[in-house]
Amino acid sequence: MSGARAAMEGVFAGDRRELSELEIAPQAALADEVRALIEAVIHTEVPETELREAAAAVAALTERLNTARRNRPPAARLGVNGMVKALGSPVTGVLNAIAPPIDVVTLEDGSVHAEFTLTDVYEGPPTFVHGGVSALILDHVLGAAAAANGTPGMTATLDLRYRRPTPHGVPLVVTARTVRNEGRKTWADATITGPDGRVTIEATAMFIFPAT
Ligand SMILES: CCCCCCCC/C=C\CCCCCCCC(=O)SCCNC(=O)CCNC(=O)[C@H](O)C(C)(C)COP(=O)(O)OP(=O)(O)OC[C@H]1O[C@@H](n2cnc3c(N)ncnc32)[C@H](O)[C@@H]1OP(=O)(O)O
């Protein structure tokens, strides 16, 4: 079995520890604090002695958390449809401090949708979102649309058209839908829209359910 097929089956077999919402809450609250920490580390202007003390304090915390570890990022079945969610996802993971995190919902028409705001932690060109971060978000929602269609797969192609810069610090909308399926291949389209209602990025992707 290839690594890709094993990865896909791992998602659906749920062969990893699933947490309940009660178990998730305190760990998600910790991730929220770390998100604020990441932002503070970028912007702080405290003097060097305080920076060194802060680094030592963070190192001590990391050591404390590592005294009891899982060997794989946890998952959970959440929401009305009980879809498996990777809690450590870099896009949606509430336990991942580098994830915004974005709450992606599946609508009745099968499309997926999210409203989100990115801080300058995700900045590329000054005042705008890094194009690779936008690609990460689009890849994820396109994959979620393929999965919502009952035809999940590994990203085989991802095409992006950056129409205009995507600003950070303002509400954005991402939507994706499956447009076609042929055997193991599924195609999906997505857009990111800015607060003025204008599309900033158009994306299309093809997903393949691995053969072996
Ligand atoms: C972990 C997955 C999560 C899914 C979970 C769903 C849960 C839902 C919840 C929430 C949504 C989460 C959303 C996450 C989204 C993020 C997804 C990613 O980041 S995926 C990582 C990046 N992608 C890779 O690393 C792929 C690496 N490539 C591969 O593994 C293989 O190449 C693969 C599976 C793409 C194809 O391998 P073969 O062996 O199955 O395919 P062969 O049999 O060779 O080809 C079949 C047909 O496809 C074409 N083909 C193959 N690869 C192609 C490509 N890259 N581009 C175009 N055509 C390709 C071939 O020419 C062939 O075409 P002919 O049928 O003959 O016409």
UniProtKB/TrEMBL annotation:
Organism from which the protein derives: Actinocorallia longicatena
Per UniProt, residues of the Thioesterase domain are 128-197
What keywords are annotated for this sequence in UniProt? Apoptosis, Cell membrane, Cell projection, Cytoplasm, Fatty acid metabolism, Hydrolase, Lipid metabolism, Membrane, Transit peptide
**Which reaction is catalysed here?**
dodecanoyl-CoA + H2O = dodecanoate + CoA + H(+); decanoyl-CoA + H2O = decanoate + CoA + H(+); (9Z)-octadecenoyl-CoA + H2O = (9Z)-octadecenoate + CoA + H(+); hexadecanoyl-CoA + H2O = hexadecanoate + CoA + H(+)
In the record, the note on similarity to other proteins reads: Belongs to the THEM4/THEM5 thioesterase family.
Where found, per UniProt?
A: Cell projection, Ruffle membrane; Cytoplasm; Membrane
**Known EC number(s)?**
3.1.2.2
InterPro entries, per the entry: HotDog_dom_sf, THEM4/THEM5_acyl-CoA_thioest, Thioestr_dom
A Pfam family per the record: 4HBT
Q: What is this protein called?
A: Acyl-coenzyme A thioesterase THEM4
Gene3D superfamilies xref list: Hotdog Thioesterase
Q: Which residues form a coiled coil?
A: none
